[in-house]
Amino acid sequence: MQETIMKLIEENRYKEVRNEIAEMNIVDIAQLIMELDRTKLLILFRILPKEIAADVFSYVSLELQQYIIESITDKEISNIVNDLFIDDAVDFLEEMPSNVVKKVLRNTDEDTRKLINQFLNYPDYSAGSVMTIEFVDLKKEMIVKEALNHIRATGVDKETINTCYVIDKGRKLEGVLSIRKLILAEEDVIIGDIMNEDVIYANTLDDQETVADLFKKYDLTALPVVDNEHRLVGIVTIDDIIDIIDQENTEDLHKMAAMEPLEEEYLKTSPFILAKHRIVWLLVLMISATFTGIIIQKYEKLLQSMVILTSFIPMIMDTGGNAGSQASTLIIRGMALGEIKTSDMLKVFLKEFQVSILAGSVLAVVNFFRLVIFEHVNYLMALVVCFSLLCTVVLAKLVGGVLPMVAKKVHLDPAIMAGPLITTLVDVLALSIYFEIASKFLNL
Amino acid sequence: MQETIMKLIEENRYKEVRNEIAEMNIVDIAQLIMELDRTKLLILFRILPKEIAADVFSYVSLELQQYIIESITDKEISNIVNDLFIDDAVDFLEEMPSNVVKKVLRNTDEDTRKLINQFLNYPDYSAGSVMTIEFVDLKKEMIVKEALNHIRATGVDKETINTCYVIDKGRKLEGVLSIRKLILAEEDVIIGDIMNEDVIYANTLDDQETVADLFKKYDLTALPVVDNEHRLVGIVTIDDIIDIIDQENTEDLHKMAAMEPLEEEYLKTSPFILAKHRIVWLLVLMISATFTGIIIQKYEKLLQSMVILTSFIPMIMDTGGNAGSQASTLIIRGMALGEIKTSDMLKVFLKEFQVSILAGSVLAVVNFFRLVIFEHVNYLMALVVCFSLLCTVVLAKLVGGVLPMVAKKVHLDPAIMAGPLITTLVDVLALSIYFEIASKFLNL
Question: Is the pTM of this model over 0.95?
Answer without folding.
Answer: no
